Amino acid sequence: MTGPRHTPEHEGNLYPGSDPEYDSRGDDIPPPEPLPEILSPQTPGLIHMEPDSETEESPLSGRRAARAAATQTLYEAESTGHPAVRALHQIAERDALPDDQLEFAARLVEAVESDRLALDDRIGELAPARPVARIDRVDRAILRLALAELSLEGDDNAPPAVIANEAVEIAKLYGSETSPRFINGVLGTVLR
Length: 192
Hints:
The protein is mostly helical.
């Protein structure tokens, strides 16, 4: 029986050209990868949410696309710690979001980011059976966005029933099987 062959240039280090480092067991530790300058769907740690192909037949457009981008942004920011503004701009670039939709998505993200604790308190009041921390991240992001949009003021605001319906549609795209019913129930309480 023969053992593994060792070549002098690789002896004791799996990563030639670097000084060997070892962990507590004596195994080689790979050199750390440098942090990326630009986040992309291929960046390690970047969350790229794909809509369920069974529920999405055509590309999103209009305000739904902006709401979807805002949902993805908030989910990524909470999951990875990436800055929300940076994530939103990269999602908008990836999805070729027009300027007006990017502006709307940015308003939504900013509204959530600036009032997150109050929004979470409101979610806790509306869904007392589930502690906010135990609500799925996607569902939490969708609820925060919908509640923030309901509180926005301006001439171009959608009616509350439309905002709730859009949140349910986004939940169908990105949430679990139970997400649409849960989102509908929580927002239905607001509309009563």
